Amino acid sequence: MIGLKIKKNRANDVRKILFRRSFIDLNAKIKREDDFVIFPLSEKPDEELLNELEHESIEIVDTVFEMQKRNPKSLKDYLKGKIDPQKIEEIKGSFDIIGDVVILEVPEELENFKNIIGEAALKFTKRKAVFRKKSEIKGIIRTRELEHLAGEDVSETIHQEFGTRLMLDIKKVYFSPRLATERKRVADCVKNGEIIVDMFAGVGPFPVLIAKNHNVKIYAIDINPEAFKYIKKNIELNKVQDRVFPILGDAREVLKERNIKADRIIMNLPGSAYEFLDSAFNFLKDGGIIHYYEFASDYDMALKRLEEAAYPRKVKILGKRKVKSKSPGIWHIAVDAKVI
To answer: Are 195 and 261 a contacting pair, CB within 8 Å?
Structure first.
């Protein structure tokens, strides 16, 4: 392989020139011999380059270089040479990592390559298990069908997020790591002394994060028995037993039976939270805040629903935002509203 040999005291200046002129072969490592440095070249230097480098002070040599070890930078890099390049482009580059588990999507047309894709994801993420989505999230307990592709066939894991630890089984409960920033944003709004209700708490990511950082009382409600089981574990895991109180049941019935009056209510069930708005406002104190979520293309319907549910009281919109994309043109939106 062609190399350019130069004394060490000139190596830095020469390196800059070679980089600027794109003559260094980046696949090979720079070589050092005694008082000399040898740069691997991608092609034979032209006269213009030789003149710029001062021809008499350099030597062009033929030598052996050690090659660079370059790790793949994406899932698609791991699949090169294993799947047709055109088919690789059909694979979504994004996937969810929950603790030691990876959840990805495999297009139907790549069904025959699902295990190869799973193994590639296992190597790229360095996690313990890879599953693929087999259905949309469905039912009141918000779960989806998953298929094991690679690694250990274990779906229970512990996910870490902003100083909290959340144990869950991805097959039995709903959890989205993509909402981490939203959960932190809501938690940062909380004040000490508040009474809070999370109407659809799942395994407790909102309540646990809030309770770890504030002196509050949080009722964490969910209708899924598996979610209820895990939120109890997560309360202990994060040592917030004195601040988070898990309740199994329908949020509407729980609020009514216990007559809980809240300073803040979290309603992260974007597919059907609107059905619970009347109940939420009935148990929200004057001056209380609702964090409301919905799947929508804009904010118009969400704002209308909040106003109607709050009547005869009024709402002041504190903020609204797109949390994440659900499908083309449809967003998981959030609206913060204060009842006045």
So the answer is: yes
34, 127: one domain = no
Residue that has been written with the tokens 């089984």 in this structure: 169
User: What's the mean pLDDT when you consider all of the chain?
Assistant: 92
28 and 149 belong to one structural domain = no
In 3D space, the residue among 266, 281, 254 whose CA is nearest the CA of residue 334 turns out to be 266
Sign (positive/negative) of CA torsion 118, 121, 122, 123? positive
**Domain-embedded: residue 159:** no
Sign of CA dihedral 135, 137, 142, 143: positive
**140-188 pLDDT, tens per residue?**
778 889 999 999 999 999 999 999 999 999 999 999 999 999 999 999 9
State pLDDT tens for residues 66-84: 887 666 677 888 888 788 8
Token pair of 63, please? 């030598």
Tell me, yes or no, whether 99 lies in a domain: yes
Q: What's the Cα-to-Cα distance from 153 to each of 42, 81, 111, 212, rounded to whole Å? A: 46, 27, 19, 32
Tell me, yes or no, whether 168 lies in a domain.
no
Range of the domain at 127: 75-154
Global pTM reads 0.77
